[in-house]
Design a protein that fits this description.
Number of helices: 7
CATH class: Alpha Beta
Order of helices and strands: HEHEEEHEHEHEHEH
Helix content: 25-40%
CATH topology: Rossmann fold
Largest sheet: 8 strands, mixed
Number of strands: 8
Distance between the termini: 60 Å
Structural class: alpha/beta
CATH superfamily: SGNH hydrolase
Strand content: 15-25%
CATH architecture: 3-Layer(aba) Sandwich
Shape: globular
Oligomer: single chain
Length: about 300
């Protein structure tokens, strides 16, 4: 049995290496791609986006993909690409820890046993249809996470664990691509988060917290011109959460004062429940982020 496992692993690594080589040599665009980060909480994970309802698209095979997603804090229970580049695809469930008195924040990676997908697929498919640039996506998303409790770059403990994971996964992905002869141009962040901050304690501080995280991310990744596309499920709470409008306004306020930030409205995207987008809604949200990125890049090119 051990021999079979070793052979399977070797075959998988050989396929990845061959695929990366083919990617680097395709159509004369040797070793270059636009890198987009996807991060946030459960609607970035794609918690309720059933992959069985995802239409197939051969374009997915041409998109480099690296992921880590699951529950906070990032740990061995996450769903990952194994610290390697592969192609765009739904992600399998990780190994979520059982809910116990000592593990209270494990939500189960994805609702479906066959995993799920986030806005990265609708995003990449829409971009592929509209522009010729090769694409690479790094996804680092964790369900139920908030700015203060998980994404705070100033917190060296669990309060900053998801932020550190985003930075470390991105750095590792960049280094792995470079080793394979692929130069990635870090151009945008797709940020799908805000539901967990729609409360009395955190909503008032959301604009400052998110703005601080974006400033830290641009510095830590040496990407001062990184475009940040901001959105979340504005239907969160089925219209009964009074703090949702405050999160919307905070994201819009950031977009007004930071020329590299863009607010992306997700209103009307199909939902599975009062918290999450379903598969169709997740695809639609990804397409909206893609259109927002194309508009932002067009404006930047005209400056």
């Amino acid at each position: 049995m051990k021999t079979k496992i070793k052979v399977a692993a070797s075959t998988f690594l050989l396929l990845l290496t061959s695929w990366a080589t083919a990617f680097a040599a395709d159509n004369g665009k040797a070793g270059s791609a636009d890198l987009i980060l996807v991060a946030g909480q459960s609607n970035a994970v794609g918690y309720d986006a059933d992959p069985a309802r995802l239409p197939a698209d051969p374009a997915d095979k041409g998109v480099l993909f690296w992921w880590r997603c699951g529950d906070p804090p990032p740990d061995a229970h996450d769903s990952t690409s194994g610290g390697k580049w592969t192609h765009l695809q739904p992600q399998p469930r990780g190994n979520p820890a059982a809910k116990t008195a000592g593990v209270e924040r494990q939500y189960g990676n994805f609702a479906q046993p066959n995993g799920g997908f986030g806005p990265e697929i609708g995003l990449a498919r829409q971009l592929h249809a509209k522009q010729p640039n090769r694409l690479a996506i790094v996804k680092a998303a964790f369900s139920g996470t908030g700015m203060r409790t998980d994404w705070n770059p100033a917190d060296a403990g669990d309060g900053g664990a998801c932020y550190r994971a985003l930075v470390s996964e991105t750095r590792s992905a960049l280094a792995a691509a470079k080793a394979q002869g692929i130069a990635l141009r870090l151009c945008a962040l797709v940020w799908v988060q805000g539901e967990s901050d729609a409360n009395a304690q955190d909503a008032a501080n959301y604009e400052r917290a998110l703005g601080g995280m974006l400033a830290a991310l641009r510095k830590d990744l040496d990407a001062p011109r990184l475009i940040a596309l901001l959105g979340f499920n504005t239907q969160y709470g089925a219209g009964k959460n009074p703090f949702v409008p405050k999160i919307v306004e905070a994201q819009k306020a950031l977009a007004r004062r930071d020329p590299l930030c863009v607010y992306v409205d997700t209103a009307g995207a199909a939902t599975a429940n009062a918290v999450h987008f379903d598969a169709a809604g997740t695809l639609e949200v990804g397409r909206r982020f893609a259109e927002a990125l194309l508009r932002a890049q067009g404006k930047a090119g005209n400056r």
